[in-house]
Amino acid sequence: MPGKLEELIEEINGREDEKVSCVIADALIGWATELTAKMKIRRDALWTLPAASLVLSFSIPKLIEDEIINSNGTPTKKQMLQLAPNMPAMNSAHSFWACVGESMQKDLFDLTVNDIKAMKVTDFLFCNSTYDLEPGAFAVVPQLLPVGPLLASNRLGESAGYFVPADSNCSKWLDHQKPNLVIYISFGSNTILDHIQFQDLALGLELCNRPFLWVVTPDLVNNANDAYPEGFQERVAIRSQIVSWAPQQKVLSHPSIAYFLSHCGWNSTMEGVSNGVPFLCWPYFADQFHNETYICEF
After folding, report:
1. Nearest Cα to Cα of residue 83 among 96, 72, 71
2. If both were cysteines, with which of 89, 196, 210, 255 could 80 make a disulfide (CB 3.0 to 4.6 Å apart)?
3. Closest Cα to residue 242, out of 275, 209, 202?
């Protein structure tokens, strides 16, 4: 990738009417920042996770020095950390690189360490968050500029880049529901449930006797069509809508939505908070456990 990007920039700069004057890259691809620095092009980075996760990343040397984590990012023991005043305490076991599975932990930790070095030499470092949500975190990293929430509803346009085409019937179905009654369930595009979790959730939704809109992505559970409890879909058909993907920002802004059962991904967190929807939290991996702490306790 670095070589291909360099070729592309050189090709563009070789034209008479166009020049690349700045590259804005995801902060977790530090090589892009390093490349643009070498090419003497202004380099900016966008941190798409919460500001608290960046504070945690910048704290890595101190955490190693204090023997809270080892050189691979593994917590030496479970303990609560207060990274800064006005930030919620976090469990040392919930560092985002420690919540991705053993096979990925060291790679993500090493990547984070390298990317932090690159971020410190950017011209501007942006973050998809706000001072109102994370005043303590922004106080620790004053060079971090909040530009969030980056929501499609804040601009003239529709969300793009869906992994699965959004079901356009969601809004029509919600229009026929009573205000403040529907439970919306979505775990994003990466969460995977085992069959027992999936069936327990389905039975819980049935027993709550509330209308619900449930996003069941193709990868949420193996063999999704066979994973439902026997007869479940028929029993809840009159008060449910099960879709493979939903236009989430439109859904969360709908007056019929009462609760958002979420994996606490940062985009979902920002979208739910921006619409004032109460959360039911079920974090899955990475920064989602710390996001849950923000939602529930701060």
Report:
1. 96
2. 89
3. 202
Question: Which of 155, 151, 27, 97 is closest to 288 using CA atoms?
Answer: 97
| Structure letter (DSSP) for residue 117 | H
Q: How far apart are CA 286 and CA 266, in angstroms?
A: 10
Write the pLDDT tens digit of every residue in 25-38.
Answer: 999 888 998 899 88
Nearest-angstrom CA–CA distance, 191 and 154: 27
Q: Which residue has the tokens 């990343």?
A: 57
Burial group, residue 194, by CB count within 10 angstroms (0-12, 13-18, 19+): exposed
Contact indicator for 266, 293 with CB cutoff of 8 Å: no
Q: Kindly give the residue spans of alpha helices, DSSP state H, lying in the chain.
A: 2-13, 30-38, 51-58, 60-65, 102-119, 135-140, 169-175, 195-208, 224-227, 232-236, 248-252, 266-274, 288-297
- The type of residue at 221 is V
Tokens of 51: 């500001």
CA–CA separation, 159 and 280 (whole Å): 24
Distance CA 213, CA 222 (A): 20
pLDDT digits (tens, 9 = 90+) for 247-280: 898 999 999 999 999 999 999 999 999 999 999 9
Cα–Cα dist 298/82, whole Å? 13
List b or e across 223-262, with b for residues whose CB sees 16 or more CB atoms inside 10 angstroms.
ebeebbeeebeeebeeebbbbebbbbbbbbbbebbbbbbb
Q: Under 8 Å CB-to-CB from 261, ≥6 apart: which residues? A: 183, 184, 185, 186, 279, 280, 282
The rounded distance, in Å, linking the Cα atoms of 280 and 255 is 18
DSSP letters, 30-70, are HHHHHHHHHTT-EEEEEE-S-HHHHHHHHTHHHHHHTTSB-
